[in-house]
Structure formats: C-alpha cells, structure tokens
Amino acid sequence: MNNLMNPSENTDLLSDISLLIEQSKRKIASQANSTVTLLFWQIGKRINDEVLRQKRADYGKQIVSQLVTRLQSTYGKRGFQLRNLRRMMQFAELFPDSQIVSRAATQLSWSHFIELIPLKSKEA
Predict the structure, then answer these.
(1) Over 70: is that where the pLDDT of 3 sits?
(2) Which of 35, 40, 45, 51 could disulfide-pair with 60, CB 3.0 to 4.6 Å?
(3) Largest alpha-carbon pair distance within the chain?
C-alpha cells in the first residue's frame, strides 16, 4: 500500500494550508496596524497632556522638538519626525475618547486617520 497522497488530495491540502496562512497574515497585519494606531493616539494624548499642564505654547514646542530628537535617537527616524508627532497630537485632540479610537482602529488604519485629521469639522 502506498502512503503517498494522490495529486488531487495533495492540491487540496496545499490550497487549504495556503488559505490558512494568508488569513493569518491578514489578521496579523490588521492587529499590528491597530496596535500602532492606538500607540500613536496614546503618544499624542500624552504629549498634549504634558503641553497643557505646562500651559505655555512656546514651552510646548520645545518639549516636542526635544522629544523628537530623543525618540529618533532611540527608535530611529521612521515614524518619529516632528510632522508625525504633531499628527499624533492632532489625532488625540480630534478623537478624545480612547474607546472610540480603539474600536475604529480595528477598521481604519493610521493612514485613514491621517486623511481625517485635516477635516475642519466633526461633521466632515
């Protein structure tokens, strides 16, 4: 008796396993994106809280500039440019409810939120 599968069974098995792998890849990418989006919201909120606590806009600019330098030296330039930190701050300001952000982050990526940030009204 031959222990090898016939070619059609082999193709079905490969197809099923390939489908499982692709589904898992999409799930991992979605979870990673959601986690990054929540991280960026938390960073923006934390910076906003610090700047508001100091109640000085000029000092707030210095805080953010110094933070950019330190984050880039520790984590690299990708994602931690001044422009991106400002977006994180705007993001946290526009979406103050962490629960809403958490739910939305499962459906929307950081790039989607970046597209929403320039909109001037909540209705938009």
Answers:
(1) no
(2) 51
(3) 82
